[in-house]
Design goal:
Radius of gyration: 18 Å
Number of strands: 16
CATH topology of the largest domain: Rossmann fold
Number of helices: 8
Distance between the termini: 17 Å
Structural class: alpha/beta
CATH architecture of the largest domain: 3-Layer(aba) Sandwich
Order of helices and strands: EHEHEEHEHEEEHEEEEHHEHEEE
Helix content: 25-40%
Strand order of the largest sheet: 5-6-3-9-2-11-13-14-15
Strand content: 15-25%
Length: 281
Amino acid sequence: MAGAAKAVAQPTLAGALALGRRELVALVGGGGKTSALCLLAEELAAAGGRVVATTSTVMLLRELRAVGRLVMGADDAELVTGLSEALKKGRAVGAARAPGADGKVIGLPPATIDRLWANDLADYVLVEADGSRGMPLKTFGLHEPQVPGATSTIIVVAGLDAIGRPLSARHVHRADALAAALGVPLGVAVTPRLFVRALGEQVRRLRRGWPASRLVALLNKADDRDEEALGCQVAREMLASVHDADPVPLAPDREGLDAVIVASLRRGRFARVSAAGGCSR
């Protein structure tokens, strides 16, 4: 891949992701998913789209309410009715099954989200599809991620601030499982190469589970020029090698990642890296 190529900055996250006019989007991976979900909901609604934001696991009530009016329903019919009414009053709404413990809401099963999508209630359904306890890097658990079958775009989120930190429970969700999967000692420093390998584990699992979905990595916390340069370095390596070590053949229509976004969600800056070019900012 041509590392010297340079492209124009993307003004929005939705633009950097190259979302279509109608998409079911699932966000998985490390810390930053909720911020990305809320920003996408805001951007897409401002552009005139009807947006439903939800989770297939659990999510803080206050975070989902930040998107817009929150609709809860004990069954699918009740939920569809409530969302239809809410979308007449606002472009972006939240959806959940019921209140949960510790200020959280219980999300919707992937099959329910697929049915909502089939009802054509919204132009965009955004789903937070796993958890990371706010840590920048993780590995999937046995029952993760909870991605709906009709998902058109999966966004794998990770924080660049994991690089340089120990691969430990303080900084990485399920650090012991990730260390075992990568064949490295627990507590070893997360190098750029190890970061790429960790995300490669997620990408391969997603490709096997959802082969038809577009798959984009979002590398967050590129908050200054040095971090942007590091993010672009990591992005190029991910695009070049993320599926090299996979012993299981991937789907014939897609392999690896479609693109990588190097971002500062906090500063609203986005750089798109794709297999056809270099780092854009």
